[in-house]
Write a structure and sequence with these properties.
The protein has one domain: Archaeosine Trna-guanine Transglycosylase, Chain: A, domain 4 (Roll). Helix content is 20%, strand content 36%. The protein has three helices and six strands. β3 (44-49) and β4 form a beta hairpin. 22% of the residues are buried.
């Protein structure tokens, strides 16, 4: 299974993936949407900044999912994972805003980070604003 994580370029996380200071990716949701219960150890995880080509490929090593009862629990969870997820311990205000009032969090750990020849994908059917794409084989949507 292949997954594409679409990142906010302004957060500057892809360089941290490449220099291995970021070794996990988190997604926070109000409902259980992809990749919840769809991503597993051994899957391929690709990264791209929004509006740009895919440039990084990794291999999933561990997945941790949380159901979040309240904002104080969300903050506790983020503090626990911040260094691996963000590449530093201090949680920026934009991340604190992002995790507020979310009911679910998923942390995807990865290794085998490779910078790859950039390529684009056809997001037709996934929604123009999709921030995560799951496919059986990336080559089926590769342009």
């Amino acid at each position: 299974m292949d997954h594409i994580a679409i990142m906010k370029k302004s957060w500057g996380l892809i360089p941290k993936i490449l220099n291995k200071t970021k070794v996990a990716e988190s997604r926070w949701y109000r409902s259980r949407i992809a990749p919840w219960n769809r991503i597993k150890k051994g899957h391929n995880l690709y990264f791209k900044n929004s509006g740009e080509a895919i440039t990084v490929k990794t291999k999933v090593t561990k997945v941790i999912q949380y159901e979040i009862p309240n904002n104080s629990k969300a903050l506790k969870i983020m503090k626990k994972h911040a260094e691996k997820d963000l590449g530093f311990k201090k949680i920026p205000p934009e991340v604190l805003n992002y995790i507020r009032n979310k009911n679910y969090a998923i942390f995807i750990h990865f290794d085998s980070v490779k910078e790859i020849k950039p390529f684009n994908v056809d997001k037709t059917g996934f929604g123009a604003m999709a921030a995560w794409i799951t496919v059986n084989n990336i080559n089926k949507i590769k342009l």
